[in-house]
Amino acid sequence: MDQARRNFLQGLGALSFGAATPAAAAPAIAVDGSRHRWAMVVDLAKCIGCQACTVSCIHENVVPEGSFRTIVSTYEVSDGAATAMVMLPRLCNHCADAPCIPVCPVGATWQQADGIVVVDANRCVGCAYCVQACPYDARFINHQTGKADKCTFCNHRVAAGLLPACVESCVGGARIFGDLNDPASMVSTIVSKGETKVLKPELGTQPHVFYLGLDAAMTGKIEGEPTLWQPKS
Ligand code: SF4
Ligand code: SF4
After folding, report:
1. Which of 46, 145, 180, 233 could form a disulfide with 37 if both were Cys (CB 3.0 to 4.6 A apart)?
2. CATH number of residue 153's parent domain
3. Contacts of 186 (CB under 8 A, 6+ apart)
């Protein structure tokens, strides 16, 4: 058993510590009274852009061809003197203040007590308001179901005590999943050091996907052409 899985399973057995995010650098926790507040840390230094996470997510969640719940965007960046490739794994941020939720006219999307933002396909009418409202391009209309679709942190796996498929399959160990309400979890330990960044922090959405090693220039409008996934803005 690797350290990430051991840490996650230990967290599942922990008692509730309320909103005990351990340090001032950690974000506010948007939901009260939940035992867990799931979050992910992505260590960019460990991502090799292999797309194992992308493929495993497609298989796990039956994502139709041409759509992605998660993907690793590849950017070519240059400072004028040197050029480098940057790998940026992207997925729903399970924002504490998620702009995709209030726009839904039928209440088909909401945030669970554990922080996971979900969609009820039975209620969804496929209007795509939430797709437009997400500033991270993390949602899409599933062309097979006609319903809104997105990453759920593999809600079904987490409920069974398993890691999300993308975390389980990451060959570099770049994706770390765990409970921010558990101060002993690996995600809490990393986030509490204050060295992580989130995408578009200026929007106040309080993303719960944290990046280690993310250059400040990459948190906002992404310059350059992603090879697999084109952000809208
Ligand atoms: Fe909603 Fe987008 Fe935030 Fe996910 S990343 S919770 S879809 S606003
Ligand atoms: Fe709500 Fe579905 Fe419309 Fe999204 S696409 S706003 S979940 S009804």
Report:
1. 180
2. 3.30.70.20
3. 3, 4, 7, 8, 41, 176, 178
